[in-house]
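Hi everyone,

Forwarding the result from last night's run.
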Amino acid sequence: MTFAMDWRYAVAPGLAEFEEMAAIAWDRLPDAFRSRAGDLIIRIEDYPTDEVLDALGIDDSLGLLGLYHGVSLDRKSVLDVLSQPDMVFLYRRPLLDEWAESGETLGDLITHVLVHEVGHHFGFSDDDMARIEAAAGGS
């Protein structure tokens, strides 16, 4: 039996739903990964700011799915003066566009971007991030 969704009444998840999905993705990550992240803040925004896009040389506001903002743990010193907490941003509208085009589940896409950006916090390689994502499983 084939199920056909009536897309006329479908509503894209809002910021609150994205926050919940990101929290679920975070909770599925290995304990060792989460405990080492410390006070890392995860924020959901609709779009990256113009300043972020300009700094990264990105012209399309849908061209950035997530961003790590801070100093990676492998580059931090106990002598550093912290001006802002380390943050991971997940951008809802670009993620929704990627979801529509990729065929992935939205939960898997959020997990992928979350792991990638938190991986930058740790200074991880892409291979390290792929192993962590695999350990988190799919949604």
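DSSP finds six helices and three strands in the chain.

Cheers,
N.
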